[in-house]
Design brief:
The structure holds two protein chains of two kinds.
Chain A: E1 4-10, E2 13-22, H1 26-40, E3 45-56, H2 58-73, E4 77-81, H3 85-93, E5 101-103, H4 106-112
Parallel strand pairs in A: 2-3, 3-4, 4-5
Antiparallel strand pairs in A: 1-2
Helix pairs in contact in A: 1-2
Chain B: H1 7-16, E1 21-26, E2 29-35, H2 38-54, H3 59-80, E3 88-95, E4 99-105, H4 132-139, E5 142-147, E6 152-159
Antiparallel strand pairs in B: 1-2, 2-3, 3-4, 4-6, 5-6
Helix pairs in contact in B: 1-2, 2-3, 3-4
The chains are: A alpha/beta, B alpha+beta.
Chain lengths: 115, 172
């Protein structure tokens, strides 16, 4: 399944709805380009909705980490929303569950961004 | 006892995986050769999931085995063979009834798995690479590395019916 990303604005937060696989190759590139584009346009509050992400490999995990550090280093905030069990388990065994700010509810996630 | 790796699984695999060339199929053991491409990584992952299901693993275990094979195939194609079209990746599956043994061999410059930093160490948590071998060890019951001339062979073992186990130490 091809990786897709679409963005929308909710109360000053850029929500990116991803679907498909974030794996070495196209999926990772879509994530990288999306984040780069958002930062270039000055977006600093970014919420990645991974509810429809069916699979992530180690390359995809690395790309999520890269997105997190890139946004943070630019003075922004990045949070994750709606992890599937597979993605949740992967972030747990790689100890990244404690690194990312992960939310289960979009309204709560939006509220959690600094005003 | 798991069912043997019979022809139905192989037919499905052959129909869905265009570029896999079956080199050998003897009972519960067969192997194929892949080009050093990203496409091969996807094909290896798909084949592993089908073969694991045929070997008697449940859906969750099949996904874990497929992911381990994917990560091993990425290492072979990307880090081992460095996408060199002249170099190939050989994959062998063997089902012994109580376990599935998968061997993935590249023709690269060799790999020292001990040189890969611990991705769980606090100073490495935010690194963007270096988690592949860790994930392989997390998902399989036994992982071994062997030097080839040239290249590296990784052996992945999953016991049928075993809980998600503690990975054993690899031996070089």
């Amino acid at each position: 399944m091809t990786m897709k990303a679409s963005t929308r604005q909710v109360d000053g937060v850029t929500v990116v709805d991803f679907s498909g696989r974030i794996t070495l190759g196209e999926g990772s590139v879509v994530l990288r380009d999306t984040i780069r584009d958002l930062i270039t346009k000055g977006n600093k509050k970014i919420l990645l909705n991974l509810g429809d992400v069916t699979y992530i490999d180690s390359s995809g995990i690395g790309e999520l980490v890269s997105a997190y550090t890139t946004v943070r280093n630019g003075g922004g905030e990045l949070k994750l929303l709606n992890l599937t069990k597979k993605v949740h388990d992967l972030l747990q065994i790689t100890k990244l569950y404690t690194v990312f700010d992960i939310k289960d509810d979009e309204a709560t996630a939006i509220q959690a961004f600094a005003k | 006892m798991s069912p043997p790796l019979g022809k139905p699984a192989l037919r499905r695999e052959k129909s869905g995986i265009a570029r896999i060339h079956i080199q050998q199929m003897t009972g519960d053991r067969f192997s194929y050769t892949l080009d050093s491409t990203l496409d091969s990584v996807n094909k290896a992952e798909q084949a592993a999931e089908q073969i694991a299901a045929k070997a008697g693993f449940d859906e969750e275990e099949c996904l874990r085995i497929a992911m381990a094979v994917r990560e091993a195939a990425v290492n072979a194609v990307l880090h081992g063979n460095a996408y060199d079209p002249k170099k190939k990746v050989n994959v062998t599956y063997e089902s012994t009834g109580d376990k599935l043994v998968i061997r993935i061999a590249d023709q690269g410059n060799g790999l020292d798995p001990d040189s890969v930093p611990d991705p769980l160490a606090p100073e490495n948590l935010l690194k963007t690479s270096g988690r592949g071998i860790f994930l392989i060890r997390s998902f399989m019951d036994e992982v071994k590395f062997r030097d080839l001339e040239p290249g590296t062979e990784i052996t992945l073992v999953k016991n049928v019916g075993a809980p998600l186990g503690q990975p054993e130490e690899d031996s070089k």
